[in-house]
Write a structure and sequence with these properties.
The complex is a heterodimer of chains A (357) and B (280). Chain A has 357 residues and is α+β, with helices and mostly antiparallel strands. Chain A contains 11 helices and 10 strands. Chain A has 2 domains: 141 residues, no CATH class; 185 residues, Up-down Bundle (Growth Hormone, Chain: A). Chain B has 280 residues and is mainly beta. Chain B has one domain. Classes of the chains: A alpha+beta (357), B mainly beta (280).
Chain lengths: 357, 280
């Protein structure tokens, strides 16, 4: 026992010796923006460990001015690639002016200048700077006309900050921003596109198709609003696999359909629309809602989703009708093949989302 | 026995993923004289070694100093400042600092999350996790620091944090420290309370701690579970800087954000060498 007692300090020393020399357990970065009219001066700072990871350079060496100066051409592009400040939706072009080492903090800072299209433009800053690290946080400070206007923290849960003050956000800019987000979400998420196409594959009169799409719209609007306003917030771990399952279900329903069986698509569209609405709410939540324009942002996001859907219907429904007018058999073949494709894709997403749990 | 406990826990800590665990307030000195300016930073890490966590304005729910009077420290530091507050000590007695953050979130793969629950003694959530899914957690920080000594009522009265370790005696003078853990103001039984100890940089200069980023990790030297009254007594007789920490986890109130929510309470203080053997 005495021997163990003597060995313990050595064990501890060995164990401690195994700890990494360059620990970086609290990952963070900084972005300061100073606006003066249309002119922008900025400073972005990141830890040497993150910069080394991105550039392939040696973290500890980045603390030495000579090394940093020599490797400037590899460090600056990391900042330029990661910095995402947008003016009127377009990424700002920045002009690096200096690289500094903040020695006692293990940081390297790049100062830069840029220019807005017009003074007073609303800016969006997206982050955090290294989003692949889920714990990374970017401290954002924005000065406008010499006064500190925004103090924010960009994290995995809060990926966008709007600059210009919410009070200065016009209704038009909120509507434009969230309308685009809604449309973008429909077109970036193939699961929603396939679900809508699945509803259309069997065709039908214009009135019937309108009824189906309206049922889907009404249902997802309900749950989108309920979740965004905080009345009910089911876990995405439940919702995401359910969305995938809804696609499989629609495909199977199409394959099982016989000409004499009743058309249940409007009912299914409504039921599954409730689930898709929760999915839309997760996206809207990640976008970051302006506190004083929740109503407008919710409305315009939903409108964007509807526009996205409508454009899919307008592209797909006439095409299917044209095929059907040529040959019922060809239309059936398209519906058959399309439904199997939808079942396959939905099944794949379902398995993928379950395995990711 | 304490050494064995320390070694076993330390080795377990080192075997876990390199992500910050404890969170504490570190003042520039634990024994300031009246009129001295004290600066306070926040640290996150394991084994009482950590990195500075810059002050985050959007994350701060409360930050108060209880001295001769109660002062709100929010807004003294800029967003991202490594020093969370600087204040002048009005009297030579004890000063309590209390901070609470809102939630940040993290997601860990199932094995890693289960290992962390086991390591932190969070037996309830570990037993309740049946689905084997990843650990989706949001966590809030509730650290306190006790600077100086005297006017014990400033530290023995709760500060109103969601999870709080309340010393029931002046920690700087009690070698066996009784604490009560409160959750939303109510005693919390069965929670694991741990204590770490590090030497101070020196008795001079206001009993400054060694820079937490420049020192080695250590294992806890004491740990106890609270009884039904939420109380536990820890042996904190050694001189130096102390960190006492407790974690509570419960199902998340916002299931869209996370499945679990945890609160991390701590209290830091220092004991002088001359008080090492004094009875409570």
């Amino acid at each position: 026992m005495r021997r163990i007692g003597r060995a313990l300090p050595a064990l501890i020393a060995l164990a401690l010796g195994a700890t990494p020399a360059v620990a970086h357990d609290v990952p963070y970065s900084y972005l300061d923006l100073r606006l003066s009219g249309a002119a922008v001066e900025g400073r972005v700072a990141a830890h040497v460990v993150d910069l080394a990871h991105e550039s392939g350079l040696v973290a500890d060496s980045l603390r030495h001015p000579a090394y940093l100066s020599r490797e400037r051409a590899r460090v600056v592009p990391v900042f330029l690639e990661r910095l995402d400040v947008r003016d009127r939706g377009k990424r700002l072009t920045v002009e690096p002016t200096r690289l500094d080492i903040v020695l006692d903090r293990g940081l390297v800072a790049m100062t830069f200048t840029s220019r807005l299209e017009q003074a007073g433009d609303r800016l969006e800053v997206r982050g955090p700077l290294f989003p692949y690290d889920p714990q990374h946080e970017t401290y954002l400070n924005v000065f406008d006309g010499g006064k500190l206007r925004v103090q924010d923290l960009l994290t995995r849960d809060h990926r966008m900050a709007a600059i210009g003050g919410e009070a200065r956000l016009s209704v038009a800019s909120v509507v434009r921003e969230f309308l685009i987000q809604g449309v973008r979400h429909i077109f970036l998420g193939p699961d929603h596109i396939l679900f809508v196409i699945g509803l259309l594959l069997l065709g039908g009169s214009l009135g019937r198709l309108l009824k189906i799409i309206t049922a889907f719209t009404a249902a997802h609007s309900l749950t989108l609003a309920a979740a965004t306003l905080g009345f009910v917030q089911p876990s995405p771990r439940l919702i995401e696999p359910l969305i995938a399952l809804s696609i499989v279900f629609i495909g199977v329903e199409n394959l099982r359909h016989r000409s004499e069986s009743p058309d249940r698509r409007a009912l299914l569209a409504f039921c599954f629309g409730l689930v898709h609405g929760f999915g839309f709410a997760s996206v809207l939540r990640e976008t970051g809602l302006p506190a004083n324009a929740i109503g407008w942002s919710l409305f315009s996001f939903n409108l964007g989703v509807e526009l996205g859907q409508a454009s899919i219907v307008l592209a797909v429904a006439p095409l299917l009708a044209w095929v059907r007018s040529g040959s019922e058999r060809a239309a059936w073949r398209v519906a058959f093949a399309g439904s199997w494709l939808i079942v396959g894709a939905g099944g794949y997403w379902f398995a993928e989302r379950l395995l990711a749990r | 026995m304490n050494r064995l406990l320390a070694t076993a826990t330390l080795l377990a800590v080192l075997a876990t993923p390199a992500r910050a665990h404890e969170f504490w307030l570190s003042p520039s000195g634990y024994r300031p004289a009246a009129g001295d300016v004290v600066s306070v930073s926040m640290f996150a890490g394991t084994g009482f070694r950590g990195e500075v966590k810059p002050y985050a304005v959007p994350r701060t729910v409360r930050f108060v100093l209880r001295g001769a009077r109660v002062s709100d420290l929010r807004g003294l530091a800029a967003n991202g400042d490594p020093v969370a507050a600087r204040f002048r000590v009005a009297d030579g007695s004890g000063q309590l600092l209390a901070y609470e953050s809102n939630f940040a979130s993290i997601e860990l793969p199932a094995p890693e999350f289960d290992r962390y629950l086991k390591l932190e003694g969070l037996d309830g959530p570990l037993a309740a996790r049946k689905d084997g899914g990843p650990g989706r957690e949001r966590y809030a920080r509730c650290p306190k620091a006790w600077i100086g000594a005297g006017h014990a009522e400033r530290v023995t009265q709760p500060a109103g944090l969601t999870l709080e370790i309340v010393p029931l005696a002046d920690p700087s003078t009690s070698s066996r420290l009784p604490v009560r853990v409160l959750l939303r103001g109510q005693p919390l039984g069965g929670v694991l309370v741990r204590a770490w100890n590090r030497p101070l940089a020196g008795a001079g200069a206001g009993a400054a701690p060694v820079d937490p980023a420049a020192r080695d990790s250590v294992g806890p030297v004491a740990e106890k579970r609270t009884n039904a009254r939420g109380e536990a007594a820890l042996d904190v007789g050694r001189a130096g800087e102390w960190l006492v920490s407790a974690i509570y986890m419960e199902p998340s109130a916002d299931t869209q954000a996370a499945d679990w929510q945890s609160f991390w309470a701590s209290v830091t203080f220092a004991r002088d060498a001359r008080r090492e053997n004094r009875a409570p």
